[in-house]
Design brief:
Layout lengths: L7 E6 L2 E8 L8 E9 L4 E4 L7 H42 L3 H36 L1
Antiparallel strand pairs: 1-2, 2-3, 3-4
Amino acid sequence: MGADLPDYYFRVRENGALVFRVDTENRQRRIEMDQIAVVNIRNGEIKPHGDRSLSDEDIDVIREWMAERQATLAARDVDDILRAVDHLNLTTQWAQSRATDEQLEAVTDALLLAMHDLRGVLVRRKADRLMKGDEDS
């Protein structure tokens, strides 16, 4: 079992992770996890836990995990948005074919305001990208 486990374990939390060194090479053959650091993904900070000092290998492994985690979170963001597009399409179909007048009354204003806000942001950001593209040409 020990050979199958990684040397480090990252307990994910909202802003990053707690980093543990995994040890299975002990007399009791138990899995021991020793916290060595706290990682903040948002600001890139790596704080040694307690009085510890991190080795170059520790830092390298943590930075690699941080890069992979940021890529995973970015991919999830895009996937969440594409799911929102699907949900908007399903909402449109529901409003057109199944929604009662009472249901539409309950959601119409909130949906219209949210869609208006989203449209404004998207149009503004697209215009910014187009203007930047013209400047780069």
